[in-house]
Amino acid sequence: MELSDKKEMLDITTAILMDMIGVIESIHAIPILVYLPAGREIYMYPAVIQDEAYMFSTCQLNGKAKCFSTRSSFAEKIAKGETFNLIGHWGPEGHRTVAEAIKHYLVDDEHITVQH
Fold first, then answer.
1. In sequence order, which ranges of the chain are alpha helices (DSSP H)?
2. pLDDT tens across 98-116, in order?
3. How much is the pTM?
């Protein structure tokens, strides 16, 4: 992909995300963006990868939107010996990992409360 094509793609994506965030805020809800790793990103260990950094920068542009990544949840499970599908859709393990990460984020940051 040429640099101008990538810039155009990022500009369009940013515009779409900012519109989504605006709509969410217009109904007095908190926009929360979640980074979902694809393919080999599940096994990458740098602090933040390029696409994650882009998502976080989108939240910073808005100032009210919240962002988090599920990569650390995958890393924790990988450290315990769990493996994940790198081709096509995640298997049940990947979906469970993401669901648990989202639940923990929403509960720990008190966006929702869980009734026992």
1. 3-26, 50-62, 71-79, 92-108
2. 999 999 999 998 888 777 6
3. 0.84
